[in-house]
Amino acid sequence: MAKEPPKLLEVVLESAEVVADALIDNEIVKSIPVVGTAVKLVAGRADLRDRIFVSKVQRFIEQLESTAKPDRMKFQKQILSDDDQKRRTGEAVLLVLDKLSDLKKADLLGVFYACFLGGHLDGAQFRRLAAAIDTAFIDDLESFLEHGDDELLSQQWRMEQLVSSGLTTPSAVKIRSAAGKLFYEPSTRGRKMIELWREHGPR
To answer: Where are the alpha helices (DSSP H) in the chain?
Structure first.
């Protein structure tokens, strides 16, 4: 994942009110149940938490702008015809965005939501990856997406840290090294995340 230059949070948030107004009329925001309503509620408010939320939504949406419109239209027809799917997916996006501890995670969530729109993930798979993004530490996630299926990384402590997110698991092939240290490997969910990231992530 490309590293971005350091930014002060104040710089990211300074135009949050303007961004919120623009997001209200954004076609993609309107197509995501619950999220559009949340953006309307925080628009025009100066609360810091609201500004942070708007910034997360903006970065999430930026990853979706490149999704082909036919994919979005197909998605809208499918999700809007299923009330339970509509509610669960919209709630998952809203709750995860609200809790994210790093703005970069909003970028990741956007990439995998775009994969969902394109039919590369079903609703349950997307929600599992969303939960993993929420749980994991961003530095560990970035390292995992870049090197996660590399055998040389299987003893790295970052791989152990990702077990709680469901992205890694103790290796069933190499249980321990000569020093008694556990080996870790991507789980089925983790391999899916790496595969989608390499195929659909930012270039």
So the answer is: 9-13, 16-24, 27-31, 35-42, 48-64, 69-80, 83-99, 103-117, 123-135, 138-147, 157-161, 188-200
